[in-house]
UniProtKB/TrEMBL annotation:
The keyword Thylakoid appears for this protein: no
The protein's name: Signal peptidase I
TM annotation in the entry: 123-141
GO cellular component: membrane
Record-linked NCBIfam families: sigpep_I_arch
Keywords: Hydrolase, Membrane, Transmembrane, Transmembrane helix
């Protein structure tokens, strides 16, 4: 349970969005289930051959692919998966760009599911309530015993 918590909290603290690879399109570079840590980049500095992570379907999904071509006139990129034979026809605009994979942890993405995140959030809430209640009960106990509280 600690691992999923660390996989969520640490990247947020460092400002690194995470993405989970859900297909084998980028094999062998990124296998299905890999947890990607993504750094933001300026689209102007990207070149053909670099891997990028971007939103598709109005942000419902995140893909990681390699840049196959850049159309400077239309300000779009075309991508290809490492395992694919042909370039994808979808135009990737700058606004869809999440960034570039900085590093990845193979197979760890299988542990960071929506169910795991939900459980971690619930445990965090229970822990917070426990700490608050314990603190409150200790304060009441000390007041009843007539002890001075140090703040």
């Amino acid at each position: 349970m600690l691992l999923p918590l660390l996989m969520i909290v640490i990247p947020k603290m460092l400002g690194l969005p995470i993405a989970i690879v859900k297909s084998d399109a980028m094999e062998p570079t990124y296998s299905s289930g890999s947890l990607l840590f993504v750094k933001s980049v300026d689209a102007e500095n990207l070149i053909v051959g670099e891997a990028i992570t971007y939103f598709v379907n109005q942000g419902e999904q995140i893909y990681t692919r390699r840049i196959a071509a850049i159309d400077q006139n239309e300000q779009v990129m075309y991508t290809i998966g490492d395992i694919q034979d042909h370039m994808e026809t979808t135009k990737i605009r700058k606004s869809q760009l999440l960034g570039q994979p900085l590093f990845h942890l193979p197979r760890i993405g299988h542990l960071v599911t929506s169910e795991t995140v939900s459980i971690v959030k619930k445990l965090y809430l229970v822990f917070t309530i426990y700490i608050t209640a314990t603190t409150f009960l200790v304060m009441i106990s000390q007041i009843k015993q007539g002890k001075r509280m140090v703040m």
